[in-house]
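name: query_chain
kind: protein
chains: 1
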Amino acid sequence: MKSFYSLMLICFISVATAAAEDTKSQPNILWITCEDISPDLGSYGDKLVKSPHLDRLAGQGCTYTRAFATSPVCSSSRSAIITGIYATTLGTHHHRSMVPLPEDVRCFTAYLRDAGYYCTNNDKNDYNFEIPADAWDANGNEPTGAIAPAPISHFLQL
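structure:
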């Protein structure tokens, strides 16, 4: 069985590559990451949880119903998401291990930046490795609008 995260990376690269040929067709991407909630949202069928805004967003977008974590710890899961490589393969499975990335490993955001996306990350940057310089256009707690150049044609906010 192929890694969910590798498949996700391939999808993002495919979208970025196809969209690079026709920049008018590039979608904006808003990636919302939630931790420690399981599928406890109305959009996943939970009748007790009231999450109308997320449910509406999920109804207009994509909801993954067969997603699994590659690690029980947030930082090693993040390293798998951002690289598309299992944390155990990359060596990032120990929380706060700060391993060096192999030279041929890039964050998926670097591929999106190559395709013309402006990529920002406001807080989730604990990947168990030092963040490569080509990973983000902006990475920190500043409001995105305050640091983004104008005009931006294609955008990823993680």
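note: Strands lie at 29-30, 118-121, 138-139, 155-157.
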